[in-house]
Amino acid sequence: MIWNHFDDPLFNSGMKQRIHKEGIVEYVEGNRIGVRLSTSSSCEGCKMHGSCQAIRCEGMLVTVESCDAAQYHVGDKVRVGLALERAVYSLGLAFGLPMAILLCVVVLVFWATAHEALAALAGIAALLPYYICVYCLRRKVSKWVAMEIA
Fold it and tell me: What b/e readout covers 6-40, taking b as 16+ CB neighbours within 10 angstroms?
């Protein structure tokens, strides 16, 4: 049987899907709340859990802005969420677009020069303006992909 993503409710355009994750409030400063997202269930049963440095195993700290931040206290369990379309957008910015730029530049330079090392260096160099642009627009991007307390 072939998987048809149009039948999958996760990809149903009629519904706004959200990604939720449990976490614990670590700090509250003004209208900003620091939430440590809970560890992955696959990490809990792992024998290397104590020595592993994977960020998903020790939990990730995210900052959530909320106008009613005063009602939350350190140690409270909360549930943070992000719209699926915003998660896909952030993944595209972080991985998809840089990969497309890299591949296009490598292929074009290799096609023009037939020199592998030059093509590889040009591909890496082409990412520098992209990451400078993302860095300059980081506040705008972070507001659009900000998590919310659900």
Answer: eeeeeeeeeeeeeeebebebeebeeeebbbebebe
pTM of the model: 0.63
Q: What is the dihedral of CA 116, 120, 123, 129, to 10 degrees?
A: -140
Going residue by residue through the chain (150 aa), what tens digit of pLDDT does each one get? 344 444 444 444 444 688 888 888 898 988 888 888 876 666 666 666 556 655 555 678 888 888 888 888 888 898 888 888 888 888 899 899 999 999 999 999 999 999 999 999 999 999 999 999 999 998 888 878 777 887
25 vs 38, 116, 138, CA distance in Å?
A: 11, 50, 24
Give the SS3 label for residue 95: helix
For residue 77, give both structure tokens. Answer: 């369990």
Question: Cα separation of 133 and 105, whole Å?
Answer: 18
